[in-house]
Write a structure and sequence with these properties.
This protein is mainly α. It has helices at 17-43, 48-59, 65-72, 76-89, 110-131, 136-157, and strands at residues 63-64, 92-96, 104-108.
Length: 158
């Protein structure tokens, strides 16, 4: 939610000016982080969804396509198309479940493990360049405050 500097903020009803500035700063961080991650991944010829899928499979190899769709917040057809591209690239393989042939399990290949490890190093370095210069005490406070914000948002969802 970045607006040109010459435009004054449009206040939201019932929101005090400080809360409005905090919200705008939070949204700027989200937008900048998203742009940075897209750029870094594009430089590595990677798509964010595929990078997340590789990361998830590194933690839980053999997840079902349905589990991946749920965890990635993507539709089943979107995940199927993504997995087809990843299978063609040699990073994953799909196999039927040993006990339920209706379920397809997704496994990382050696190429997929190497790719996930490379992306993890690259993304870790990128995030580190942004956060590491911030003093540790400030990072701890930021972690606490973002946790409070997340809890409040989740609480509002019910």
């Amino acid at each position: 939610m970045h607006r040109p500097a010459h435009l004054p903020p449009v206040p939201l009803e019932g929101l005090d000016p400080l809360s409005m500035r905090v919200y705008e700063a939070f949204m700027r961080v989200l937008a900048a982080h998203r742009q940075l991650m897209f750029r870094v991944l594009a430089e590595e010829n990677a798509h964010p969804g595929q990078a997340l899928c590789l990361r998830m499979l590194a933690e839980r190899d053999g997840a079902s396509q349905r589990e991946l769709a749920c965890a990635l917040h993507l539709s089943a057809p979107t995940v199927t198309a993504m997995l087809q591209r990843m299978e063609k690239a040699g990073t994953i393989e799909r196999r039927p479940d040993a006990t339920d042939q209706r379920v397809t399990r997704v496994h990382l290949t050696a190429v997929g493990r190497a790719r996930e490890r490379d992306l993890r190093v690259i993304l870790g370095g990128t995030i580190g360049r942004v956060l590491d210069p911030i003093p540790e005490s400030d990072r701890r406070e930021l972690e606490r405050l973002l946790g409070v914000m997340a809890d409040r948002a989740l609480g509002a969802l019910g």
